[in-house]
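Q: Hi! First time doing this. I have a protein sequence and I read that you can turn it into a structure. Is that right? Here it is:
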Amino acid sequence: MKREKKEKDPVILLLDGIILLLFFVLLVTAGTAAFYRKMADKRSFTQDPGMISFELQKGDYAGLIEGKYFNEFNNETESVSYHALADYVEAAFLYRIYDTKGDAERADAQRLLMEESRAAMGELSIFADRADEMLGTGGT
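A: Yes, that's right. Below is the predicted 3D structure, encoded as structure tokens:
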């Protein structure tokens, strides 16, 4: 007795094709995700002077401070003047808070940090002046 070959239903063939296509898409997506995860692990999250300069042009002083902390975390000490400016802005902000609250001791400590940072920032002092205008600290 011979078995007859049945013709496969076109719907079943279509579903088989869709399953194979979805499996292929899953493999490609998983491979791409693994590639980008590996690339992200290799990259360090340091802020280069170009990016810091861009943030300053936008007036993003919070991004400047955040970039300084990223660099410190990654032992990146190349951008000394930018880090000094970030220290200045952070100290000016804290000075404004302590001065407003009437805490003269802490305000004086922040004023001293502002003076030290201004001496180390060099040509970026123009941005310190802008930060003083924004925060109303009046500079050093």
